[in-house]
Write a structure and sequence with these properties.
- It is built from 2 helices and no strands.
- The chain has 74 residues and is mainly alpha-helical.
């Protein structure tokens, strides 16, 4: 029983000091603003055939003129 209390105490002290050190460095702060800006700048997916940039409203590739999507024939 004494070993369990001693082990739990040591672990608690280590976690306490580690959290203070991480908090001082700012390791617990997650900055998502850069990711969100990169996401907005990336635009839409490229053309699957020629890899040129496309926009959401394009029905065909502006570079190679291949149509996006196809009607399913049944």
């Amino acid at each position: 029983m004494l070993e369990f209390v001693a082990t739990a105490s040591v672990i608690s002290v280590l976690v306490f000091f580690a959290s203070r050190r991480f908090r001082a460095r700012g390791a617990f702060e997650i900055d998502t603003s850069r990711w969100y800006e990169d996401y907005l700048d990336a635009g839409d997916l490229p053309c699957p055939w020629c890899q040129s940039p496309t926009s959401e409203t394009d029905r065909a590739c502006p570079s190679c003129a291949r149509a996006f999507g196809s009607a399913l024939s049944t």
